[in-house]
Amino acid sequence: MFKSIRQHLYFLKWYAQVRLLGRRRPLQTVLFVGDACNLRCKHCSVVPKEGTPCRKKDYETIAQELRRCYALGSRFVDFEGGEPFLWKDGQRDINDLFDLAREIGFFSTTVTTNAQIPFEPCRSDLVWISLDGVGAYHDKIRGEGAFARLEKNIALSSHPCLNANMVVNPLNVDAVEDTVRFVADHPKLKMLSVNFHTPFPGTEDLELDWDTRCRVIDRLIALRKKGAPLMNTASGLRRMKDMRFKKRCWVTNFVMVDGAFCPQCLGSEFGLCERCGFGMASEMAGLWNLHPETILAGLKVRM
Ligand SMILES: C[S@@+](CC[C@H](N)C(=O)[O-])C[C@H]1O[C@@H](n2cnc3c(N)ncnc32)[C@H](O)[C@@H]1O
Hints:
Elements: H1 2-20, E1 28-32, H2 59-72, E2 76-80, E3 88-89, E4 92-93, H3 94-104, E5 108-113, E6 126-130, H4 136-142, H5 146-156, E7 162-168, H6 176-185, E8 189-196, H7 210-225, H8 234-239, E9 252-255, E10 261-262, H9 279-288, H10 292-302
Parallel strand pairs: 1-2, 1-9, 2-5, 5-6, 6-7, 7-8
Antiparallel strand pairs: 3-4, 9-10
Helix pairs in contact: 2-3, 9-10
S-adenosylmethionine binds near residues 45, 83, 112, 113 and 197.
């Protein structure tokens, strides 16, 4: 109860600082723990090409990075990779990083996983499971057998807050509705966040044409109205149809695999903001304008 009041007060203070005083302070951090992965997904630009060595940060480096982000103002952290559940440093594993983040003072932790290995026990507050379609659609992007392993490992998990994250591209665009239904019917998955492929260098061929993207968005808004468990808000989805809103992506800072601190998503450096597919970018715009639907959705996920 007190914790929750403290967290809400912090949010009000942060909002006053950024909105009224014009300061740019991150509220959320995406921290890459390394780039080793057990999959080679077609749309991924993070994992190194065959033959290039993988990188892994040690515990102390991550501790310093977390403290620096906290000092900047961040209070939510998402651990990313590579595959975060492969991360180890001596006796420590990814769970020690979730504990560390909370010890430092972060309000909550999330982790994004491909669910190819069992991820239980998992002490992160929330788990994002990357789900790029049902069955063969998922495997077309993530490799044969990936969907079966994901299903098995979700079944083995007793985590109370499992959510799915889909990235739509031409290979799985026909699977969007089935994926929404899959999550709605799944006894363990709570919500689905739908994103579109962002064409980072080397993955441009997986960008969806804009008309198709708008059609998918209209369909998602209709499904949402009927009660589909979509994390994206209707207003957030609508904004993704033209991307003409003012971007506030500095609300999330990034700590990259090489330790670089980026004040916002690398998409801006590549000039991709107008073609961005990350649902979070448009949800940030809603949060900035205190759109009640966005605040409610954010609270539901984070608190
Ligand atoms: C890079 S992966 C790393 C975590 C983990 N290995 C996994 O597969 O979930 C993190 C998330 O980014 C998404 N992603 C990768 N490339 C993307 C792109 N170009 N546009 C949008 N999302 C992307 C993935 O689908 C995944 O949900």
